[in-house]
Amino acid sequence: MFKQMVGLVLCLMGTASVAAHAGTLIPVVPFPGATSTDPFDINDKNVIAGGYSDSDGNYHAFFGTLDGQYTSFDSELAQGDTQANAIDEHGLITGIYFNDDRCPDYFCGFVRDPDGTIYTLRVNGHRFQGYPREITTR
Fold it and tell me: N or C: which terminus of the chain carries fewer CB neighbours within 10 A?
């Protein structure tokens, strides 16, 4: 009975691994001079968005092409840390920034227009504190 159970488990494990979907590995060039680079999203035009740490320990948002042609940005309201979480095919970016005075409980959410203007996300007139992760409509 034990051998039959082991055989059944092995058979099911083999079936489960066949059902898994293959992924695509996309190499990302590190941000120049960064101590770490964290890509969080890629759009249909192969533009990535994410964050990186500099040698002073500050965290900045970035976006750019897979060959490392990046643009760095920070929210002017940030107190040290800005991170890009998602980018759509038009270049609209969502993310977070840290600010103790304005978002004392968590990070403030933002949207960055393709022209570079950054807007703090608001819900019922209050700053959105959380992690905006996707852009579904414009």
Answer: N
